Amino acid sequence: MASSAVRKAIYVIAFYGVYFNIFLLLLVPSIYSTILYVSFLVVYYGVGIIDTAVRPVTEEDKGVDKYTRYLLIFWLLHPFIFTLMFYENAYFTQLYLAPQTASILAWTGLLVYAAGGLISIASRIQLGRHGSGRLVLQQNHGLVTSGLYTRVRHPMYTGGLIGSIAFGMVFRSLFVMVLDVAVYFVIFRQRMQREEELMEQEFGEEYLDYKRKTRRLLPGVY
Length: 222
What we know:
globular; mainly alpha; Four Helix Bundle (Hemerythrin (Met), subunit A)
């Protein structure tokens, strides 16, 4: 238990405290002088820290599959994505978007991101010890089909998709946001397919029946 807590603390400090802020300070230092962006970073870091805190670490987590590596690379790109979004707004969007409209859009995006973060965190909590984030089937692995999993099979990723859209709203970015959402979808689509293959192998017809009744990400859509 202690080693798990230490690993989580090291991750939080290294990623959110050091890595993220170093690149933002180097690439877009003015982000720290705007209350909107500071508020967003506080929420972004807060969601990440809470998600890390509730994420279980088990013996089955040893080793990193290629899908988890893809996700890690994607997360490492976030400070650069935010930088591109910031400059897209500075040199393009604000030329065409009225200040009041831009402000409403940005603050709404902050709330949307918080909502997406809550969905992801709640999804992980509902999975309990199975929500480690690694593509592994643990001992006595159970099939969760209630709560947030009643209508979608991957609500945790739904929350992440909402978050990616919210990034664009906060930074008033269109082009970079579309690219970010596209990359997010491609990566997570591969991961979802692999997860479902594992679940079909483990639970057979029970999982196939669950698939027929649900969507992957968006109720009634996909």
